[in-house]
Amino acid sequence: MKATLERTDLLKSLTHVHRVVERRNTIPILSNVLLRAEGGALQLKATDLDLEIVETVPAMVEMSGATTVPAHMIYDIVRKLPDGSQVVLETTSDNATLEIRAGRSRFSLQMLPETDFPDLTAGEFSHGFSLTAAEFRKLIDTTQFAISTEETRYYLNGIYMHSVDGAKGQRFRAVATDGHRLAQAEVPAPNGSMGMPGVIVPRKTVGEIQKLLETPDANVQIELSETKIRITTGAVVLTSKLIDGTFPDYGRVIPQGNDKEMRVDRDEFKEAVDRVSTISSERGRAVKISLSEGRMVLAVNNPDSGSATEELAVEYESTPLEIGFNSRYLLDIANQLTSDTALFRLADSGSPTLIQDNTIDDCLFVLMPMRV
């Protein structure tokens, strides 16, 4: 194999593919990236057996062939090569090492045969549709923070994606929850998505997809089966297994009868929560919100370090209410709101609160209260 290509192109692709490779592997081949040169392109492939990413970059191929080399090692080498250089990748005649040449730099990497490299067989995909990168990114960015990290509840370790037929017509929806908070976002359902199986996309896959959605108006092709998802954007194809589990009936968690409405300037609220939570303990993080007509008082009391309060003007006309929340969870939600005013729908101090943008209703958040 012998191929020559721009360092910039090679680095961009290695940046995408090397992230999939775990740094500690008991199976040596999984530490490697597969390089295949043919036609006028170099194909790079990496996998962890649950997630596979393939990217194709233009190259001048003098000799077709394929091999595998350590992914993090070749990434570090190419990252440190001079900007604008031409990189030559060539296997030695005894097929033992891959030589990397750029300017006066020479590297030689140990290879493993491409025949050992596993293939994440995709199988048949029952549904296919496309979204813009901006739409797909909105679904992920809005819900990702609520993914559970508790491995015992593995069915919450991802984003649940499905299509719904509701009051606003057919919608494509993403939901994530960790039991303490829930985030939901939706966009108009694209052609081909109705009737798709509800799927849970794993946390690691979500993170990798997010990094590929760099161009907002690019088209993203999404293919689904009951066990796998395949994302194609530009020259990159990402295939992943889905979480094999049943996502809970999240609709039962979303409060319907919360009759106390409170509106507050989003930025003022966010900054005030951030300020008073400076006092909170790493373990507690509780902030108490006291509501009365036209007024909110945020209070944090930490027996070990002191206390803090801050008052804000709000739109609130219901009966006085005191309720406690985890300050970090409040900030996570506030960071996802896009309108200038945040809308809180409350019931009482022991019931979940619904939080939305005041003017946009395609996202909603549910937050469980804390005892304070």
Automatic annotation (TrEMBL):
Residues 131-249 form the DNA polymerase III beta sliding clamp central domain. Its main location: cytoplasm. Pfam families: DNA_pol3_beta, DNA_pol3_beta_2, DNA_pol3_beta_3. It is found in: Cytoplasm. InterPro entries: DNA_clamp_sf (IPR046938), DNA_polIII_beta (IPR001001), DNA_polIII_beta_C (IPR022635), DNA_polIII_beta_cen (IPR022637), DNA_polIII_beta_N (IPR022634). Belongs to the beta sliding clamp family. Forms a ring-shaped head-to-tail homodimer around DNA. One of its GO terms (biological process) is DNA strand elongation involved in DNA replication. It comes from Roseibium suaedae. This is Beta sliding clamp. Residues 252-371 form the DNA polymerase III beta sliding clamp C-terminal domain.
